[in-house]
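Thread: thiamine diphosphate complex, take 2
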Amino acid sequence: MEPDLWSLYRQMLRSRRFEEFVKDLWEKGKISGEMHLGIGEEAIAAGVVDHLQEGDAMALDHRGTPPLVARGVDLVVLLREFLGSEDGLCCGMGGHMHLFSPEHLAASSGIVGSSGPVAAGFALAAQCLRPENLAVAFFGEGAMNQGMLVETLNLAVAWKLPMLFVCKDNQWAITTLSHSVTGGNLIDRAKAFGMPAMEIDGTDVEAVWNAAGQGADRARNGNGPTFLLAHCPRLEGHFLMIGQIRTDQDRDPLDRIQRRLGTEKTRLEEIQKEVDQEIQKAVEIALSSP
Amino acid sequence: MRTMSFADAIEDALSDAMASDSRIVILGEDVHALRMNLFARFGEQRVRSAPISEAAFVGAAVGAAMAGLRPVVEVMLVDFIGVAMDALLNHAAKIEAFSGGKWKVPLVVRTACGGGYGDSGQHEQTLWGWLAHIPGLTVVAPSTPADAGGMMLSAIEHEGPVIYLEHKLLASYWLYYMGSGGRTTVGFDVPLEGVSGPVPDSWTPVPLGKAATRREGEDITLVSVAVGVHRCMEAAAVLEEKGISAGVLDLRTVSPLDREVLCGAISRSGRLLVVDEDYRDFGLSGELAAVVLEAGITVRYGRVCTEGTIPYSRELEDQVLPNTRRIVDAALKLMER
Ligand SMILES: Cc1ncc(C[n+]2csc(CCOP(=O)(O)OP(=O)(O)O)c2C)c(N)n1
Ligand SMILES: [Mg+2]
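Output below.
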C-alpha cells in the first residue's frame, strides 16, 4: 500500500494553518491560559490518523489539536472551544488540553502519561465489542517516564490489546532534556515488554504512514500492540510565550513534504489555496457570534 | 522590614534554610529552571531535576526524609498530585503513627495551586481540604509574602510531612507562565497585597496551625485561606459601606485547624461565612461548621466555595470560583436571617 501524499499534505497543512490562527488569537488574548501547539507534529498526526477507521479511538495529550483536525473534528466547533464559547466542542468547559469528541472516540488530557491507560481502555472495549477496531495513544517522550504509561505498555502486551503507542519525541519536556533524566533508550524499553517497536523520522509523513500502517494491521489482526518512536521538532516551544526563542526551524515537516511534492507546483498551490480558504472561513465563522 | 514578592519570599527563606542545613534538598521536574537561583547557588546535587515520574520521586522523597534528608519535593501543580497520592496517603502520612512515633518524615511537598486565569479543571484546583482529610499530613496555604517565607521555614523545620500550597495568583512567576505567557492582552483579578508586601529582615518560622485575624469585625466572621482571604478583605470593605462590620480570619494552616481562634471569633460574631476555593462538599467549609457546632456555639452559617469542576472559559470560571460579589451576597443573606 502506498500513502496518498497529497491528502496527507492537505491534513498537515490544515492543522498548521489552524494552529497559526490559534497562536494569533492567543496572542490577542482571545484564548486563555496555556497554549501547547502541535506545530512540528503534523506529519505524525496525519500519518497515524490516516489509518483510522470508523470506531477507532484516540487518547491525546496536551497537544491534541493536530490529531483532532486530521480526524475531521469540526474546526469551527474546535476553535470555539479554545475561545471559551458555549458552542465549543466541550461547551467552553475543557479548553485545548481537555478536548472530548465522543463521536470520534477521542479524548485528551493535560495529565502527562494518562493517554496510555485511557487508550488501553478504548482498546479493551474494541477487543470486546468491535474486534476490527483499535486505539491510539499519543504522548511525548517525557511521558515515557510516567509510571501509568509504562504500566500500560505491559498491560497492552499482557492483554494483547489492539493498540498503537505513538511517542512523539521532541527531546524536551518543558525545560528538561529528556535523555538527561531517562535510563536506556525508548525503543529497547518498548521491546523489553515484548512488542514491536519502530523508530522513525516524525517529520517524514511517508515513514510515519508506513510504520503506523504496519502497527494498525497488527492490531486489527489481533496480534496486539505496536510502539512507534517518532522524532519531531518543537517549533513553538513548550507552550506559547511572548518573545520565545524558536529553534529547530530547519526540521519543519511541512517544508519537507512541500519539497517532496514541489515538482507539481500548481497542484501544491491549489491545495494551499483551498486549505487557506477553508481555515480562514472556519475562523471567521467561529469568531462571529453564533 | 523589607518588601518582597510572595514568590521571592519563599525562595529567600528556602535559600537561607538551605545555606544553614545541608540536609535540605529540592527534588522535582524542571527545578534547574524553576529554581534557577537555588540551582546556581547549591548545585545539581541539592537541586535535582526529576523525570516526569511523580509516583517515584515523591515516594523517594518520603524514603529520603526517613533516612536523614529534609527534602522539599515539588509537584508542579497540585492537580498532578494524584499521580503521587500513594506516597502521601499510605506512606508519608502514616509512618509516624505506624512506628509508634519512632520514625518521622520531615518532608515538604511544595506545589502550586488555584485558579483565576482560564486554564481549566486539571490545572486550577486547590485540593487543600481533600489533602487535609488525611490524618498525618499538615497542609498550609499562605496568603501574604511574610507568611509565605515564614511558613516555608516552619514547614522545613517541622518533623512531619507538610503540603505547602503556593497559589498561582499570588506567586507571579506561575501566573506569568500559566496565565499571561508575557501577554499584555489578558488580565487577572490579582490581590496585590498578597503578591508583594512587607517581610521581616530575617526569617523566623511562622507557627503552623495558627490562624491570623486580618480584620476585626463584630457582625460576621469571614474565614478563608490563600487568595480567598483577599477576596474576603474586599468583601468586608464593601460590607462596611452597608453598615456591616465583618471580620476576616486567615486560617493559614488548613490542617491542623486553629480551632481556638476560630471558635473565639465565631462565638463573638455569631455568624460564620466560609470562603473556600476548594470544593464545597465534604471539605474545609463543612469541617469548620462541624468544629464550631462541636464547641457548642450557636451560629448562623454560610459558605462560598467552588461547587464543581472548574470551567476553562474565563466567564464560566468567574462564576464558579469564589469572588467578592458572591461573598458579599452570601454575607448579606446571613445578616438577614
Ligand atoms: C502528571 C503531570 N506532571 C507534570 C505535568 C506538567 N507538564 C506538562 S507538559 C510536560 C512535559 C511533557 O513532556 P512530553 O511528554 O515530552 O511532551 P511535550 O510537551 O514535549 O510534547 C510537563 C512536565 C503534567 N501536566 N502532568
Ligand atoms: Mg517532549
